[in-house]
From TrEMBL:
Any single Pfam family the record assigns to this protein: UPF0102
Molecular function per GO: nucleic acid binding
Lineage of source species: unclassified sequences, metagenomes, ecological metagenomes
Annotated organism of origin: marine sediment metagenome
Matching InterPro entries: Restrct_endonuc-II-like, tRNA_endonuc-like_dom_sf, UPF0102_YraN-like
The name this protein goes by in its record: YraN family protein
């Protein structure tokens, strides 16, 4: 698996999935995360946390959504905290 960004925030490890879309024709960026993709992200986050020493025990998975306008410039950038739950 692959995680776009791994960060530490206060007492938590934060795994961040970044989703960018030019068109909303097939849904928003956050809607493009399939159940299978969510499971892969969770498995990768768990593996990362288990295989690296001295990391916080608490962790969460956030999503950054970016929508681009017709000129390719961001029209929306949003951080969704705890977007993918551990269970």
């Amino acid at each position: 698996g692959e995680i776009d960004i791994v960060a530490k925030y206060k007492d938590s490890l934060v795994f961040i999935e970044v989703r960018t879309k030019r068109s909303l024709e097939f849904g928003s960026p956050e809607e493009s995360i399939t159940p299978a993709k969510k499971e892969r992200i969770k498995a990768t986050a768990f593996y990362y946390q288990q295989t690296h020493n001295n990391l916080p025990l608490l962790w969460r998975i956030d999503v950054v959504v970016i929508e681009l306008n017709q000129n390719g410039k961001p029209s929306r950038i949003e951080l969704i905290e705890n977007a993918i739950s551990e269970d």
